[in-house]
Amino acid sequence: MTISKKVILLGHYGVGKSSLTRQFVHHKFSEQYSTTIGVNIEKKKVSLPDCDVSMIVWDIAGESSHQKVPQSYKLGAHGIIYVVDLTRPNTYEDLATEIASLQKYLPNVPILVIGNKKDLFTEKERSDIVNQLPLSLFALSSAKTGENVDAIFTELAKKMV
Amino acid sequence: MKPAEEAIEPEKTFKYLRQLLLEDEQREHEQLTRQVVELREDFNTRQRLQKKIDPIIDDKLSYVREHFPELFGSVLTQAIKRQIQESRGEVIDALYPIIGKLIKKYIVVELNVLSEKIDQQLDQAFSWDMWQHRLKAWVTGQSLGKEIITQAIEPTVQEIFIVEQHSSVLLGSYSRQNIMDRDMIAGMLTALQGFAKEAFAKEHQDLQTIEYETYKILLKNFHTFYVAVTVSGIVNEKFKQETDDLILDFVHEVVNTRPTAQGEADYLSEPLRLYFSQISP
Asked: What is the ipTM metric for this complex?
């Protein structure tokens, strides 16, 4: 049985939402930055032991707060990946407020908070940054190397079914 | 008198005495026993019990039937009200096709058909095209009617998508040709509808048509889902209304009669294919 689920990617602009999506769906990465206008939709099937999950990924244009994202893009979401850029503190300064507000807006929808661009730091630098974060991250990822990307989406698929 | 005869005598006398004293009670006792046996038979024999009880039940039933509004009216009204409040979405979905169809049939269709007829008559009478057609028909020897029909492109339904509102989950689709990923189309159509709503800040208005070259996508919104129909050719008002009615019928007859499959992709594809292939093979 295949179950369809809407997944939305949220976070500031330039944190790597589109790169994570591209890496997950097409296993590709580009150094060139291109802004997402509105929303880009991709699809990928994730196989779980009991069923297949057809993930309709809504890669939404970056905004400093999810409240600036059109409501209709968020409504009906079954899962959320909230991405922060470990190199830019302003992308996670309001993380706790943002997540609390999202949980209120979409109750019972699983939210995975991801720290992207892992590849740009040493182990020591990474742990220093992670300790400064207002919330604990679900995982650190690198859209460039693909590290943890599939695992994050698969984990979200499990949480959604 | 012998000793044995002496012993029998008082016993006989006592028996006789008892008979004399308890005669009435004994009769009553026998009567009661008979009645109890009869009653027990009445209770244990279905037909006999039915014979006794049926008239009482019939009386009660006809009383309830006659006084139903007074007896249960307020309770029923409350229950229906509560049911409607608790499942407003389903009620809207169930009523929408019927209400929509009625209104459309008696107001919109008639007005548009009338308007089209007037336009057609005016166009036919005075248009330059009509003179060209007449001239061409006169030169080629073909009938004018044939000439006009070949000019017109019949509208044809190419694809139908039923998509869950907001989540963009494709509930069902039907297509005459192989097209790109249907889930992606459903996603983009949903995003486009959302964008139009947000951009023009019209919460209670819907995007109804999308046009590209010779194709047109007609959108019909319901409470929990929407239907998108891709049409090739020239879409006139009559075709639009007919397609609208078909969708309303399908929703009423098929979608609303099925239990919703939460998140299960494509569960309406097969009924959709069957329904529309019957109508337009």
From this structure: 0.81
